Amino acid sequence: MELDICEIFYSLQGESTFTGLPCIFIRLSGCNLNCSWCDTRYAGEESYTMRFDQILKKLESFPCLLVEITGGEPLLQDNTPALISVLLKKGYQVLVETNGSKSIKPLPPECIKIMDIKCPSSNESDSFLPENISLLTKQDEIKFVLGSRKDYTFAKSIIENDLSYISPEKIHLSPVFGCIAPDTIATWILDDNLSARLSLQQHKIIWDPDKRGV
Q: Residue 25 forms beta bridges with which residues?
C-alpha cells in the first residue's frame, strides 16, 4: 500500500491538547477545500508517493511515538485508515487532523480525531458533514479557526447546541494568525463563560510563522 505524501517532519505539536509535545507529522497531499486563510496550500501541489514500509522506516528515524496525520485533507486518500491501523499496531499514538468534510467513520476508533469545523470567514462553512459530530468520542477534539466575530458566534452556537458531551478542554477556538488578536477572542470567551479553550498556534509563535517543517 502507498500514499501521496507532501512532507514528513519531526517538531513540537503546535495545536490541540498535545501542544508542546514532540510529534512526528505526516502531511498528506491533496485537499478538497479552498479556505481563505489556508496556510498549507503547498500541500495541494507538492506530492511524492511512499509505500507503507518506506513511511515506517522514516518514522523509525525519529525518537518519538506520537504521530499526527494531517494535510491537506488526509481522508481524501483511501489508504489513510489502513496506515493508521498499522501505526497503532506498531505502538504509535495517532492523531488525525481532518476538515470534517469527509466521513470519519472509516477511521480506527483508537486514533484521536481532531476535527476542524470551518467557520464563515473560511468560505467553506457549508462543507462540514453534521453526522461527523455523532461519530466523535470523548477522546476526540474539535477546532474552530476564527477570523471574525461572526465566526465566533457561529462556533458558539455549535458548541452550546451540539457539543455538550465533548469536554471543554478538547474544544479549541484558534485565531487566524495575524487576522484577529487572541485577547479579543479571550474576552468573548470570558464574557460568555463559553465551554471552550483559547488555542494559539504555538509553532507560529516559536518560529517564523511562514517556516515549514515545524
A: 9, 68
The answer to whether 30 touches 43, Cβ cutoff 8 Å, is yes
- Bin 117: left if φ > 0, else alpha if -120 < ψ < 50, else beta: beta
Alpha-carbon Rg for the chain, nearest whole angstrom, is: 17
At position 71, the amino acid (one-letter code) is: G
**Distance between CA atoms of 167 and 55, rounded to whole angstroms?**
33
pTM of the model: 0.94
Judge contact between 75 and 102, C-beta under 8 A.
yes
Parallel, antiparallel or unpaired: strands 48-51 and 2-12: antiparallel
Q: How far apart are CA 123 and CA 156, in angstroms?
A: 18
Q: Which amino acid is at 107?
A: L
For 129, other C-beta atoms within 10 Å of its C-beta total: 15
Residue ranges and CATH numbers for the domains of the chain are 2-206 (3.20.20.70)
* pLDDT tens series, the chain, 214 aa: 999 999 999 999 998 999 999 999 999 999 999 999 988 999 888 899 999 999 999 999 999 999 999 999 999 999 999 999 999 999 999 999 999 999 999 999 999 999 999 999 999 999 999 999 999 999 999 999 999 999 999 999 999 999 988 999 999 999 998 889 999 999 999 999 999 999 998 888 888 877 887 7
C-alpha pair distances (Å), 135 with each of 64, 112, 113: 28, 12, 10
CA dihedral 123→14→70→208, nearest 10 degrees, is: 70
11: part of which helix (H) or strand (E)? strand 2-12
